[in-house]
Amino acid sequence: MRSVEWEDGAVKMIDQRALPWKLEYARLHTVEAVAESISNMTVRGAPAIGASAAYGMALAARQSEAITVAAMLVDLRRYGELLNAARPTAVNLAWAVKQLLQVAESGEFNNVDSLREALLLAAQQIADDDVAINRRMGAWGSALIDQGATVLHHCNTGALATVDYGTALGVIRAAHEAGKDFHVLLDETRPRLQGSRLSAWELEQLGVSYDIIPDTAAGYYMGNGEVNVILVGADRVAANGDFANKIGTYQLAILAAAHGIPFYSVAPTSTIDLSLATGADIPIELRDPAEVTTPYGNPIVPAHFKARNPAFDVTPHRYLSGIVTENGIARPPFGETLRRSVAGEQV
Ligand code: MRU
Questions:
Q1: Which of 253, 254, 251, 245 is nearest to 216 (CA)?
Q2: What are the DSSP calls for 148-167, one per residue?
Q3: Which tens digits make up the pLDDT trace of 88-121?
Q4: Which of 31, 32, 99, 296 could disulfide-pair with 60, CB 3.0 to 4.6 Å?
Q5: Helix 112-141 vs helix 46-63: angle between axes, to the nearest 10 degrees?
Q6: How many CB atoms within 10 Å of residue 183?
Q7: What one-character DSSP code corresponds to residue 30?
C-alpha cells in the first residue's frame, strides 16, 4: 500500500482525513488539486507531501499547453511556486519541487513530450527512493529499541506520512519485523490527532502492541519510569541539528532530558536543510484555529471562542540524542555529522 502513487495519468492518494473509519482514495487530475490536497491535509507527513509535490509537477507538465520546452519551463516554475506555498514547514516539499525543476532545466530536452516523460520518471524515482530510504533508516534505528522496551511516539510518521514504511514508525516496524517484543505509547497528537487516528491504525495492522495516550500524559509515563526511548520524525532539520516537528515535540524533548530518556528524531536526508544555520529560521505553519475548537467538524466549544493553532515547534539540538538518517545515526556535534550524512557518507 502506497500513500501516494501515479495511476492512469492522475495522482492517487489515501485520503488521510477519513481514517481510521474509512480507507478512501482521492484521485487528482490537476496540479491545483494536488496543492489543495497538501494544504487541507488529505496527504500529510513530510516525505509524503514531498512525493505528492513531485507527482504534482509531473501533472503540471501534462497540464501545460506549452509547445516549446522554454515555455513549459515558465509554466513549471509557476506551478512549483503554487506547490511550495501549500505548506511552509516541511522542507521535503520544496526539495522535491527543486529536484523536478532541475530535471526540467537540465537542457537535455528538445521537445515537450520527452520533458513530460522525464518528469514523471523523476517523480516515480523520488517515490521509490523514499521507500528504500525508510527501510534503511529502519535497519539503523531498530537497534535503539530493546527487547521489552516501551517506546513513546508522537504524531504519525508511518507508511501514511511517507510513500510507504515510515520514518520513526518505520524504525518501530523494523524492530517488530526483527522479532522484538516491545510496547508503544502513542501520543494522540492534538489537534489533528495523527497519533490516535493514523499511527494506531497502522500499528493495528502491523500487530505492534500499543496504547494511545493523551498528549498531556507523556510526563506521567516518563515520571513513573515506563518510557525507555522516544522516537519522533522531523519536518525540517537545520544545519546545527535544531529541528521542526509536530507541535508538542519540544515539550517531549524537555521532559525526556529531565528524566534522562534517550530522544531520537528519524528523518531522511531530504528533510535536512543545510541552508538554515539554526532552527530559528524555520518557517512555522499557523493553521486555522477551527482545527482546535472544532476538530473534524465536531465543536468542543462555541465557534466564537478564541484559539491558536501552530502546527509545528522547534526543538533545540541539545535535547537530541541523535538523528537516524538513511546513512546512519548522526550524533553530536550535529554540524559535522549532518553535513557528512547529507553528502552521502556513513555516519
Ligand atoms: O502536520 P503533519 O501531520 O504533516 O505533520 C507531520 C509531522 O510532524 C511528522 O512528524 C513529520 O512530517 C515526519 S513524518 C515522516
A1: 251
A2: T-EEEE-S--SGGGSSSS-S
A3: 999 999 999 999 999 999 999 999 999 999 999 9
A4: 31
A5: 170
A6: 15
A7: S
Using CA atoms, how far apart are residues 319 and 241, in angstroms rounded to an integer?
A: 10
Catalytic, 235? Answer: yes
Annotated catalytic residue, options 130, 235, 273, 313: 235
For residue 90, report the distance from its CA to the centre of ligand 1, in Å. 8
CB of residue 271 inside a 6 A radius of ligand 1: no
52 CB near ligand 1 (under 6 Å):
no
Centre of ligand 1 from the C-alpha of residue 47, in Å: 8
- Give φ, ψ of 302 to 5 degrees: -55, 145
Q: What is the pLDDT of residues 206-216, one digit of tens each?
A: 999 999 999 99
Q: Give the up-direction half-sphere exposure of residue 271: CA atoms within 13 A in the CB hemisphere.
A: 31
Domain boundaries, the chain: 4-135, 141-342
Beta carbon of 190 within 6 Å of any ligand 1 atom: no
CATH code assigned to 4-135: 1.20.120.420
User: Per CATH, which fold does 141-342 belong to?
Assistant: Rossmann fold (3.40.50)
Q: For residue 65, give the C-alpha cell.
A: 499547453
171 CB near ligand 1 (under 6 Å) = no
Partners of residue 153 on adjacent β-strands: 186, 231
